[in-house]
Design brief:
This protein is α+β, with helices and mostly antiparallel strands. It contains 2 helices and 4 strands. It has a 4-stranded antiparallel beta sheet with strand order 1-2-4-3. Helix 1 (2-12) packs antiparallel against helix 2 (52-65). The longest helix is centred in the middle third of the chain and has 14 residues, at 52-65. It starts with a helix and ends with a strand.
């Protein structure tokens, strides 16, 4: 999954201190919620350039789910989270 690869490559690997990656999955009656969290440094999530991993993720979601899936990146002082919502 490119989102997990990005969490390692950009969120954990560049820093000398230990880091942590979590994958949280929650099923509701209408959707499957997936969150990939890392403890990397914060960044301006409104200025994210779309590299290969993000492009592949967005294109795959669009191919399989059209407009019914969502993908969002959120960066805070605690790290970054990628949120994916899939229809059930």
């Amino acid at each position: 999954m490119p989102v997990v690869e990005n969490a390692v490559k950009y969120g954990i690997a560049p820093y000398s201190q230990a880091g942590h990656i979590s994958i949280i999955i929650e099923a509701t009656t209408r959707s499957l919620l997936i969150e990939v969290q890392d403890t990397g440094a914060p960044f301006d999530d409104t200025l994210v350039s779309q590299g290969e991993g993000l492009r592949i993720t967005r294109e795959t979601l669009a191919l399989h789910y059209q407009d019914e899936a969502t993908f969002k990146l959120v960066s805070t002082d605690e790290g970054t989270s990628a949120f994916i919502t899939l229809p059930r």
